[in-house]
Amino acid sequence: MQKKDNLKYLLYISSNDGTDMRINKEVRSLSAKYNVCFIGVSESAKTTSFIENYVFESHLIKGKRNHLITILKQITAYLKLVLKHPISSVHIVNEQLMIFFWPFLFFKHTVLDVFDSFFMRYGIKKRQYTIIKRIVYAPCDKVIVTDEARKGLMPDFLQKKLIVLPNYPFRYHGPISKSSNEKSIRILFFGWLGMNRGGAVAKGLLENDKRIRLIMLGWFADEDSRLLSNHPRAEYRGVVSQQMALEIAASEVDYILCLYEPRNNLNIVYASPNKVYDSIHTETPLIINPEVKIASLVEDLNIGIVLPSYHVESFKALTNEMINKLGTYNFTEDLKKSYAWESVQGRLLLAHEL
């Protein structure tokens, strides 16, 4: 992307390479108002980035994310960019990465984007470790969270700096074509492919019911998930853009897996997954477990099946339920308008206004 002389410079720092759907959306929106310089991490030399057309300058560090050497390389890239361009604002993703950049962030307008909180991951409550939290958040001018529930979990002293930016997708305008039948149920398992993120249920469905077909998109989080892709009724299509994932959901599958194994992890309990909103835009019902609070929204809107628990007792009964409920879900145009990224992306730009 060519430099736009009338725009300020913004530095976006992440432990991802730009393929994460949340990061992809944010960079695309910010690029309309800023010359975005991106610092990310790629664990594979063959990684495809989906933000190349939206960033003015990109520094993709090869290495393991969150490893000290990788982070030191990111810091080096940061210092070079700050010396090279008049950076007006810094956008940094998650507390654990910000801790390493902490000394350098007091000199720039800093926006922290929290959607995988270090504190929530370890079940640390709102009023615990307040002094440590004050230190960690000290450089932040604004802090972004994904929903009102997460906002309520953040410390009291931070509330005036918080901006709620929901994890909605860009509005999907492509065709929606469903050709379901009782002989085959097609399920989409995508994003972070782990046994504790739905892989165990996908495996159980494949092994217990021949009517199940599985399409897998995204990153393998463990070896068991990688092995699952070798099942004769599973198909792995690699890492794809959000637009491609939506097209597949809209035209090739009957249900989307959106499952989180229960743990003492507030990031899981208060998860705000893309998949809930992808479901709305592609008219593809979800399968979600009740241990995740957003499952109540799925039930209220009637956009999917809420399991009795994450641990499925009868996979054949679940397949029968999926078949019997096809065509009974409530997908409307008003719902799509309400849960579209275009309706909230202005909050992101507002966070970076000086």
Automatic annotation (TrEMBL):
UniProt protein name: Glycosyltransferase
Lineage: Bacteria, Pseudomonadati, Bacteroidota, Flavobacteriia, Flavobacteriales
